[in-house]
Amino acid sequence: MPLSQDILFEAQPYLIASEKHPFVQGIIHATLSSEQLRYYDEQDIAFEYNEVGIINALINASTTTEQALLFHQRQALQLTMLRDWLDREPKSMPHNWETLKQTPIQPINQLYRQHMSATIQTHSVLQILPSFAAGEWLYIELGKFVAGQARVDKEPFRSFLTMGGDAFLGPNGFIQQFFNIIDHEAQSATPREQEQAKQTFLKSCLLEWYFFDAAYKQLTWNDWQQAALKGDGGPLL
């Protein structure tokens, strides 16, 4: 069995858990508050900025010219998306490159970013790519799931979880090409390296669930501090 098939088989429970999460259900039924949406929007755009560095690492670690070209294409799309996103944001949100870099990073966002960044030191496409590809895959699958639901058709909810299109879907889409690269690199990897790549993918899927959960609960460092000092885990339960 190709490594990507093994990965996707084990990732299914994480996808189902995300589909059931009240944040995702809140997008479908338009029941999220403006504060929940703002938290998610601010943390997500900062997370997308962090992915610029991950994609750069993939370019540097590429083992073929074709891989480097593919990652360059994905980087161009990432930067274009960030530029357009920033142009839409109000002044109270990150609205240019400088304010984006100064966005406060909340706990789960930081843990997720550090999880991904830790793979860079391996200088291995097989280890870096799963940390990034997991989020791409999960959002594409959630987009398919949400599209099949009787969702509320109004903004801002209509635009959430709509990642897809020809650039990502189909045999020549980014996500399938990413899985092809993982399978190609796995052929020359040890069983331990393959297992590590799989676990990295699954951990990213898990952290995606916690990202939704943090947005739903609007968790901040102050909440973590209060829970620690109270000693009972209060606001994090």
TrEMBL record:
Homotetramer. It catalyses: thiamine + H2O = 5-(2-hydroxyethyl)-4-methylthiazole + 4-amino-5-hydroxymethyl-2-methylpyrimidine + H(+); 4-amino-5-aminomethyl-2-methylpyrimidine + H2O = 4-amino-5-hydroxymethyl-2-methylpyrimidine + NH4(+). The lineage of its organism: Bacteria, Bacillati, Bacillota, Bacilli, Lactobacillales. Coiled coil: none annotated. It is an enzyme of class 3 (hydrolase). Pathway: Cofactor biosynthesis; thiamine diphosphate biosynthesis. This is Aminopyrimidine aminohydrolase. Its EC number is 3.5.99.2. InterPro entries: Haem_Oase-like_multi-hlx, Thiaminase-2/PQQC. It comes from Lentilactobacillus fungorum. Belongs to the TenA family. Residues 20-217 form the Thiaminase-2/PQQC domain. Pfam families: TENA_THI-4. Keywords: Thiamine biosynthesis.
